[in-house]
TrEMBL record:
The Phosphatidic acid phosphatase type 2/haloperoxidase domain, residue ranges: 62-178
InterPro entries named in the record: PAP2/HPO (IPR000326), PAP2/HPO_sf (IPR036938)
Keywords: Membrane, Transmembrane, Transmembrane helix
Protein name per Swiss-Prot or TrEMBL: Phosphatase PAP2 family protein
Ranges that cross the membrane: 28-49, 61-81, 161-181, 211-231
Organism for this UniProt entry: Segatella sinensis
Keyword Disulfide bond: no
Keyword Membrane: yes
Higher taxonomy: Bacteria, Pseudomonadati, Bacteroidota, Bacteroidia, Bacteroidales
């Protein structure tokens, strides 16, 4: 199978996800795909790190590793892979762009392969899942990453293959950064296994996981209300 065949299949799959001609959904997706929408999530993750670690060194190591996830995932995707692959975004590809539905005339001009959104969100999801070791949090963060990935297909700014490869990159980066964190953390603190319904196996309070869920629910309520307000012009 040559690249043109892969490109054709990729575009056909994209059409299943791309656009809906629904104004409310358009605005909802625009909010979901924005990094600013998820600032409350990042803040609450920082808060639970502070609440569940005793020293400034421990907190600094975790925050630094979270930044490393973004630095490596985004840096590899944007700085290395995209310039080498030089693949047009579907919404800006001269061959298919007029067959792609766009929202608010969003036609990004940089390259498409692979998706930095997918890489960044999946790297964060994997790192914090390994850090906290809560099934609920793991499911939630992976779902959050997948929602971000879906928005990129809906908006026509990435092909499915861009998303899949970005997610794989994020998984690798998140795992490697966690392994680095774990090695450094063991030098700073003794490894303690928690056996309690109140804490995860790595010592994170289960009530703090509920805090994350609450923030995410409120964020989704905001996104929905924002979409309705923008559609009605209130």
């Amino acid at each position: 199978m040559d690249f043109s065949s892969i490109q054709d299949i990729d575009f056909q799959i994209l059409q299943w996800f791309n656009g809906s001609n629904n104004v409310i959904l358009d605005q909802l997706v625009m909010a979901l795909t924005s990094g600013f929408t998820w600032i409350p999530l990042y803040l609450v993750l920082f808060i639970i790190v502070m609440r569940n670690n005793e020293t400034v060194g421990q907190i600094g190591l975790i925050v630094g590793c979270a930044f490393l996830c973004i630095l490596f995932a985004d840096g590899i995707a944007e700085g290395i892979i995209k310039p080498l692959a030089a693949r047009w975004r579907p919404s800006n590809d001269p061959l298919v762009k007029y067959s792609v539905q766009v929202v608010d005339n969003l036609r990004l001009k940089d390259y498409s392969f692979c998706s930095a959104h997918a890489a960044n969100t999946m790297a964060i999801a994997v790192f914090f899942s390994l850090l906290v070791r809560s099934r609920l949090l793991t499911f939630t963060l992976v779902a959050w990453s997948l929602v971000n990935c879906w928005t990129r297909l809906y908006l026509g700014v990435h092909y499915p293959l861009d998303i899949v490869c970005g997610m794989l990159l994020g998984m690798v980066v998140g795992t490697l950064v966690y392994l680095f964190f774990h090695r450094m953390y063991r030098r700073m603190s003794p490894e303690i296994k928690y056996v309690s319904n109140q804490y995860t196996s790595t010592g994170y309070d289960c009530d703090d996981i509920d805090m994350i869920m609450t923030v995410l629910m409120l964020t989704l309520v905001y996104v929905i209300l924002r979409a309705v307000v923008l559609m009605t012009g209130l």
